[in-house]
Design goal:
Radius of gyration: 21 Å
Structural class: alpha+beta
Order of helices and strands: HEHHHHEEEEEH
Distance between the termini: 45 Å
Shape: globular
Number of strands: 6
Length: 200
């Protein structure tokens, strides 16, 4: 193979790789920007606190179908969450009171960074997500999470339950895409840091 042909082939491979990365990055961003997560954080890791966290999960679980049943998109789901924050906290605090807990809850919508998570074949790429966070007491214990939207709006919301039309699922191809994006992001961060250091 001539040198010019090798150069053309190398350029073609690079272009294909670049397109692959851009498509993967876009796909991951689409997931992050259309997924509303729920996190319930226990006061601590004691058996009692973890039991209380589970009871709060059970009591609030009944709310989600009614809140999100007519949400047509992610923005509407977020708006409905904001409208019901006080009500959600009231239900949570009532649950804590019935369990004789000596603390209350705090409910808020937040932008939170999460690492890549794969549960039962379902993958959520790492990055910033909008999350309804329910903090119990000092909120220093283990957390429980699920997807509020789109799962709950479809009436199939449960921890890690499959959703046929919302979340992208784990496949070898998608796993490769996520890994490629993560390596690409790490490389960009490295070279950015190196460039900044060289100007100091």
């Amino acid at each position: 193979m001539k040198k010019s042909e090798r150069s053309i082939l190398a350029a073609l491979i690079f272009c294909l790789f670049f397109v692959f990365v851009l498509d993967s990055d876009r796909q991951a961003a689409d997931i992050r920007n259309s997924t509303l997560r729920l996190h319930i954080i226990a006061r601590d890791d004691s058996t009692v606190s973890q039991h209380i966290k589970s009871q709060v999960k059970n009591s609030t679980e009944k709310l989600w179908p009614a809140i999100y049943c007519d949400a047509q998109n992610f923005q509407q789901a977020v708006a409905k969450t904001e409208e019901n924050l006080e009500y959600i906290q009231q239900i949570t605090d009532n649950t804590l009171k019935n369990l004789c807990a000596d603390y209350t809850s705090r409910c808020s919508l937040e932008q939170i960074y999460f690492d890549t998570t794969t549960i039962d074949g379902k993958t959520l790429p790492r990055g910033m997500y909008t999350a309804l966070t329910i903090r119990l007491g000092q909120a220093q214990g283990k957390n429980w999470w699920c997807i509020l939207y789109p799962e709950m709006s479809l009436g199939t919301g449960a921890e890690y339950e499959e959703n046929p039309s919302g979340t992208i699922y784990e496949t070898d191809r998608f796993r490769l895409k996520l890994k490629t994006v993560e390596l690409w992001q790490k490389a960009k961060s490295f070279f950015t840091a190196t460039e900044m250091y060289s100007h100091i």
